[in-house]
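QA checklist item 7 of 12: single-chain prediction sanity check.
[x] sequence parsed
[x] length recorded as 161
[x] structure emitted
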Amino acid sequence: MANTINIQKIDVEHVTIHSGKDFGVVKSMLESLVPRIDDGIFTLLRYRETTRALRELEALPALSIFGSRDHGALLQVAGLQRQSIQYDIGNPLTASKMTRHRMSAGLYAPVRVLLREDNDGVAFEYDRPISTFGQFADQEVNEVARKLDNDLQAVLESAAA
């Protein structure tokens, strides 16, 4: 069977939420509002403890931090001093509510959020979930993406305020 490649152009809505606060304050506020996910959930799933994993997933907050990368530190190799952290933020149960309908939705779950400080000041940046997930034209996925969109914007606005 020959390989096929399909390319689709999509419109993505990019959001920037500016903050008048110091980078460290905004970072601390985000990390207090959105806890790091307990990796024990993934261990339960790996060992097919699905009933217990589901109970724990249902008890999670709306959003958790799956991981983060310090892009600011990376820029030191270019001789630059910048503060910038990329976060993966989401909820495994929310992701499963989308990927059960469209497996490709897993490409955007969790959502990438950048907290950065540059000449414009401190800001969060991300692509709106409703626009990235909307490409799948699936009502069930869109419904979950709208809630994710609202939850994410609310928590980032709170952290930036």
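[x] summary fact logged: The CA atoms of residues 148 and 154 lie 10 Å apart.
[ ] second reviewer sign-off
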